[in-house]
Specification:
With 446 residues, the chain is mostly beta strands. The chain folds into two domains: 97 residues, Jelly Rolls, CATH 2.60.120.640; 296 residues, no CATH class. It is built from no helices and 23 strands. The strands form five sheets. Strands 11, 12, 14, 15, 16, 17 and 23 form a seven-stranded mixed β-sheet that branches. The protein starts with 45 loop residues before the first strand and ends in a 5-residue tail after the last strand. The mean pLDDT is 89.
Length: 446
């Protein structure tokens, strides 16, 4: 190989010096140092001279200036190689309003399978493709810009608690759930919920127990907790527009004075989820339909009310139990609970209220929406027990005590009153008020 030794190369004419011909390879040996005391062009990454204002697919090892007068989607290169680079810069300083979307185009972005955004005015990012496991990663950033790949729901309203990576909003009265950030699929953009309506009031004179308020539950995106058998696999999507979601918490129905029927519970609601109030317990009148049906009174009519009325899927409740036959020495049927129907009365006994549903949505296993127990008559007799989940106990005869109301904010049905010749006049128990619980992921850290 021939060798040329010189201390300086200058052009014979003009101001340009060319090394080799097109297609040649110029080798700089190991240990050699190139010192740039001037301006070097054509080495490494260069900027596209046209400012981008509409969606485009980026080319590797180029820089792009973005006009953010409107939103712009930058589709990252397909099939990149390790070491490929890109620079994306908000030229006009409006990215906080008009985000720059980084469409990953099949490659991961910061280790995730979700598109990113630049949301900082005058923000700039230098992205380097690191290989398939992590994909495009941020090498340098300007003005604290970042490729945002995950957002979480941010909201206020109700009593707010934290369980691990989740926020829980509990509403025990009418209010508003206010969303200021709707999140995205990389973090959370739907919420989990439990919506329980007010329980039905119970009847008097061997009255049926009140039906539990309708129970509805759903699982939001990226959430996980032990739910009830009634839980839907999908949650409720939320967004900052409109941002305000009215919360309605239904009241429990009043108990009926002997020998009247009770009063129906009131509906609870959040967004598209409406839970129906619990059916009334029978007392010289028909038991009522509702989220769960009320228990039938002793005598005629004695049929329990129908639950899951109006029908939804999964079902929001069950049927009430039938009462005893006329003058048969029996009591009222138990009100239906969220997961178990009210019991039909046994001889000289009120029927037990059906069991409610147990969920850990608020971090603690809690049963809600139990049916009210039926009242018993005459003595000696056994009152019907309220269903697990706040259902009130029915009343027995003699000195066994009055019927009890359901526990507040459980949606339980009230307990039925006893009755019969020589039995003190007592009212059926009132239904318990409902509750609305909303839960969502707000961080990945823990």
């Amino acid at each position: 190989m021939s060798e040329l030794k010189v201390n300086k190369i200058t052009p014979k004419t003009g101001t340009t010096v060319q090394l080799g011909e097109s297609g040649d390879t110029i080798t700089i040996p190991a240990g050699a140092t190139l010192t740039n005391s001037g301006t070097a062009t054509g080495f490494g990454l260069s900027f596209c001279t046209t400012v981008k204002s509409s969606p485009f697919t980026a080319t590797a090892n180029k820089g792009f200036l973005i006009n953010t007068g409107s939103t712009v989607t930058v589709t990252l290169p397909a099939s990149p190689s390790a070491g490929d680079e890109l620079i994306i810069v908000d030229q006009t300083g409006q990215a906080a309003t008009n985000n720059i979307t980084l469409a990953r185009n099949g490659s991961k972005l910061k280790g995730g399978c979700i598109d990113g955004t630049i949301e900082i005015n005058r923000g700039g990012l230098r992205l380097v493709y690191s290989g398939a496991p992590q994909g495009w990663i941020t090498a340098t950033a300007g003005n604290d810009a970042t490729a945002v790949t995950e957002k979480f729901v941010t909201a206020s309203g109700g009593a707010v608690t934290t369980s691990g990576n989740f926020k829980i909003h509990t509403f025990t009265s009418d209010s508003t759930f206010t969303v200021t950030c709707g999140g995205n699929p990389g973090g959370s953009n739907t919420v989990s919920y439990v919506v329980v309506a007010g329980g039905g009031g119970a009847g008097g004179d061997g009255g049926g127990g009140g039906g539990a308020g309708g129970y509805r539950e759903g699982l939001g995106l990226n959430d996980s907790f032990t739910g009830s058998p009634l839980r839907s696999p999908t949650g409720v999507p939320v967004s900052a527009s409109p941002g305000s979601y009215p919360i309605v918490v239904g009241g429990g129905g009043a108990g009926g004075s002997q020998p009247a029927t009770g009063a129906v519970g009131s509906n609870s609601s959040f967004s598209t989820i409406i839970s129906a109030g619990g059916g009334i317990g029978g007392g010289r009148g028909a038991a009522g339909n509702g989220g769960s049906g009320g228990g039938g009174q002793r005598g005629s009519p004695q049929t329990g009310g129908t639950g899951n009325t109006p029908p939804v899927s999964p079902a929001q409740g069950t049927n009430g139990g039938n009462g005893g036959p006329p003058n048969g020495g029996d009591g009222g049927g138990g009100g239906g609970g969220a997961t178990v129907a009210g019991s039909v009365n046994a001889t000289c006994c009120g029927g037990a209220g059906g069991a409610g549903a147990t969920s850990v949505i608020n971090g603690t296993p809690t049963a809600r929406a139990g049916g009210g127990g039926g009242g018993a008559t005459p003595a000696p007799s056994t009152k019907g027990a309220g269903g697990a989940g706040g259902g009130g106990n029915g009343s027995g005869c003699g000195t066994s005590g009055n019927a009890t109301s359901a526990t507040a904010n459980t949606g339980g049905g009230g307990g039925g009153s006893s009755g019969g010749p020589g039995i003190p006049v007592t009212a059926g128990g009132s239904g318990g008020s409902g509750i609305v619980i909303i839960r969502y992921k707000f961080q990945w850290q823990l």
